[in-house]
């Protein structure tokens, strides 16, 4: 086997005089934070209830899964949480369907704790959101009702 000198897609494009998204924004990062719902501001909800956490602005933004975190109160025995997104439209007009667990699937939220939401993002742990109107990141509580007073405090980190 021979020694290889490979280049990333970004370096190949740069060498050709083109810019790809990671160079267009020069790697600028920002975080979107979701505060916990105000205690008592919602009634109990059945299993599969959802909570909208943040809205990614319109445009092209890459979520950096390794830098994101969700903290939660104890939701009770057997409870799990999916993290995904609502349906949206790409900048080119293509419809993107909602994916309730496109970011993280079945996180154990029985006891209070925290997790990095990335198990569905693949090896890169990143997700490009390319939208006209923004993308709502949401969670779905599975296996039992959502009780008043249960909280989620989250932040999601993106790169332009």
Structure characterization notes:
This protein is mainly beta and 160 residues long. It has a single domain, classed as Jelly Rolls (Sandwich), CATH 2.60.120. 7% of the residues lie in helices and 43% in strands. It contains 2 helices and 12 strands, in the order ααββββββββββββ. The strands form 3 sheets. Strands 1, 3, 4, 9, 10 and 12 form a 6-stranded antiparallel sheet that branches. A hairpin with a 5-residue loop joins β6 and β7. The longest helix has 7 residues. The radius of gyration is 18 Å and the shape is elongated. It starts with 8 loop residues before the first helix and ends with a strand. The model has no long low-confidence stretch (mean pLDDT 85).
